[in-house]
Structure formats: structure tokens, C-alpha cells
């Protein structure tokens, strides 16, 4: 079973991206995937002052990334980029220098918004950061999901069959990438 950790880039209590992540979690079983959340909401603001002695919460965050075969980033777009909340987590992951948690770690990016371009610009920015981190990334399919009211229920049900089919295909493609990069389906844990 492939282990994927997911990070949600929204703090909102009514986040549609969290609903999308829940939907992916539900669909994961059919793609032979174990999907679990890597939380970022308890991380303080990153400062290089912490590099000499990372706080436990940041150590746990980096360990959670190390413990999975790949990381899925599920995020909204804020001001044509990624939310600062997510950028802060990426900064934590990237340090101390020389110990970037994403180097060599397969990643995939997906997100949803009500807008017609579905967080596409945020995803491009995120991919640019992950390229800098030397993370092998899923190129296709791209995860631009235009949200409509009721598309994802709070429990993670997908009410549209075509979207559900797309998401299963998306997960399968990510698993393929992970297997190519990591050499087998064996878990990193
Ligand atoms: C500060 C802020 C900036 C936003 N900027 C954008 C944007 O640039 N592009 C976009 O498509 N949506 C933008 N939105 C709308 C969010 O993408 C939309 O509210 C989405 O539902 C948020 O996802 P969430 O429900 O998972 O938090 C912005 C929302 C906020 C609060």
C-alpha cells in the first residue's frame, strides 16, 4: 500500500479544499493508497533563528513528510498565489539548510475554487517552489477542479461521477509517479 500524506493549504473551517482532500481520502482505497493528513496549523512562523534547534512541532512535521512515500498538496489560491499559511509550512520543510524534506520526495498539487481557472496560478507558483526543492512532481493530469455548490459533501462524498472518476485517475497517476521515483510500492515507513 502506497502511503501519501496530504497538506491542506486552507485554515477555513468551511474549506472546500479540505472537502476535496476528504474526497480524495475516501477514493484512495480504490487506488491502493493510504492517504493521511500532515497538519500544518500548529507551526509557528518560521525564522532562521530556529535552525540551530527546531521546535518539536516542526521536527514532527518534517518527520511526517519523511514517513510517507509522497506528498499531495491541496490548496486554494490567495491573491494569485498560495496562502501564506502554506508557504510558511514549506519554509519549515525546506530548512535547516541541506535538509529539505521535499528533496527527492514525490509531490502532486491539486486545488479547487469557484473560479473558472480553479486556483491554477497558485498551483503554478507552488510547482515552481517544489521545482526549487528538487521534488519529482506529477505533471499530468493537472489538478484544476472548479467547485460548484454541493460538489463535495462535508464527509468527502463526490456528487458528480465524472469528477470522482477524474480524482481516481489523478491518484493512480500520482501512485505511478511514486513507484517510478521510489522504485517500488514499498512504503518509506
Ligand atoms: C485573501 C483571499 C484571496 C483570494 N484570492 C483568490 C485568487 O487570487 N484567485 C482565486 O481563484 N480565488 C481567490 N480567493 C478565493 C478562494 O480561492 C476561495 O475562497 C476558495 O474557496 C478558498 O478555498 P477554501 O474554501 O478551501 O479555503 C481568495 C480568497 C481569499 C480569502
UniProtKB/TrEMBL annotation:
One of its GO terms (molecular function) is oxidoreductase activity. This is NAD(P)H-dependent oxidoreductase. One of its GO terms (cellular component) is cytosol. Pfam families: FMN_red. It comes from Tessaracoccus rhinocerotis. Coiled coil: none annotated. Residues 2-141 form the NADPH-dependent FMN reductase-like domain.
